[in-house]
Design the sequence.
């Protein structure tokens, strides 16, 4: 199988590495606006060859869009214009309603599968790609009834080769769940970093003291705006909904402390501890 | 050297394991209100023997308080009443102003060293103890001018044997820094867990979807109130100060989204990314 990766960064690169390793694909074309990334991806064995979008798509069985969600939404109709009934197009974006709505009336809609592998790091670029990234993680296919059987089978096989646990849901539900499970974590982490940077001027002290707890909550704050602004923008309503709730929850801690109501503080913490039963 | 660990849980247990392994101590007494923990600690090789507080203190060169910060503050004067000029008492608590103020006029003040190893997990109890926990982490000694030379040397040797990087600061500064570096992370994590538990009723979906990013930001929400309510209580003013700033920072994200001001959103994120330069 011949693969085109559009966007040879962290996610696209990691997928290509794993699919090559599993011999699911035997030739990989890379498409990227960033020439340096294409050179690195070739050096790292992620791609065999860099090509123009049109040439790469024409020669590929499977095309994976692995660029920021706004760029994916803009580019997908063009790609679908180019494909035939033997080809599969999939994305890997963190928001889904926007992209499926953008192509709902496209004649080749059924060649597209909306896919979201639930993995990422705060890093980016081909040098961050790791073939084992996805093993054991969840992956979601959205609106499967809008995809034809053969592209669905191809994407299922991709998920299997990546070692992922596949779930199905509609795009709207996906975007609500990811607002909770992923997008809000990034906002709290960014806000936490800004809090510390605003008030804690002794940077050396932060660096020397930073506990593992701080590092793990603030890790996501290293994630780049190129990826995350489009996600927040496309999932604005859900993210705002969760963000408002989160601020409400923080205000409860503030109120408990201000009023020296430590029974209430304990109750808030005991409630949070229930996450133990869900996330073991 | 003979050691008494008061509180044979995660922190006390981990310290005892490491100090035994390094042969810094050759006999360990355990003191704990929890009988089951004492039995487990003995089975796990953390302690040699459980004893009453008074008997254990009398027979020890070094006494380590590793119980919640409110209990430490209450118990420390009693322990200092029992010690002589050949003994060292240290704590491992996450707040420092409270405990040093409680003993500032005690005749044996100088036998005490206020110590804070910057490590912890969301787990508790002797079964969670790990001898390698502290390696490479920061440890703080507060108000060293109030401790005598020999206890300071003993505690320095403890830090060395734990493989920690030792810093010195006054108790007030310590409490401000830890509000930023540790305490606020716990509050955001608790609030994030409560947000998800409040709004996301499909627990199965959380469990299946939870990405590594979510798991790492919410991990601290598993931490127990027995430890954390006393910390927030003792560090109330600093924690409230940071919490107010954090809510202000979150409101900026909310405002940027509500007003579709994506340039501002990007600016907020780029600012947060500066944490990369501090936490590599």
Sequence:
């Amino acid at each position: 199988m011949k693969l085109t990766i559009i966007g040879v960064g962290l996610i696209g690169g990691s997928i290509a590495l794993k699919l090559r390793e599993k011999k699911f694909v035997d030739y990989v074309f890379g498409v990227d606006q960033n020439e340096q990334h294409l050179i690195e991806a070739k050096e790292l064995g992620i791609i065999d060859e860099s090509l123009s979008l049109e040439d790469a798509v024409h020669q590929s069985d499977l095309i994976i869009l692995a660029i920021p969600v706004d760029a994916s939404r803009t580019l997908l109709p063009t790609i679908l214009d180019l494909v035939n009934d033997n080809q599969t197009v999939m994305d890997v974006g963190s928001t889904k309603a926007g992209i499926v709505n953008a192509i709902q009336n496209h004649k080749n809609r059924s060649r597209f599968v909306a896919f979201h592998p639930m993995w990422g790091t705060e890093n980016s670029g081909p040098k961050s790609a790791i073939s084992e990234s996805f093993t054991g993680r969840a992956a979601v296919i959205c609106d499967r009834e809008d995809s034809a059987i053969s592209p669905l089978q191809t994407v299922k096989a991709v998920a299997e080769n990546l070692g992922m646990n596949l779930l199905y849901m509609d795009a709207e539900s996906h975007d609500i769940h990811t607002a909770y499970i992923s997008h809000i974590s990034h906002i709290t982490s960014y806000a936490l970093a800004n809090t510390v940077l605003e008030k804690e001027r002794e940077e050396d002290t932060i660096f020397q003291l930073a506990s593992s707890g701080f590092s793990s909550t603030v890790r996501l704050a290293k994630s780049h705006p190129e990826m995350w602004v489009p996600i927040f923008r496309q999932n604005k309503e859900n993210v705002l909904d969760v963000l408002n709730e989160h601020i409400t929850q923080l205000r409860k801690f503030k109120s408990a402390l201000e009023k020296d109501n430590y029974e209430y503080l304990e109750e808030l913490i005991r409630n949070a501890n229930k996450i133990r039963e869900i996330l073991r």
Remarks:
- Chain B touches chain A through 91 residues (CB under 8 Å).
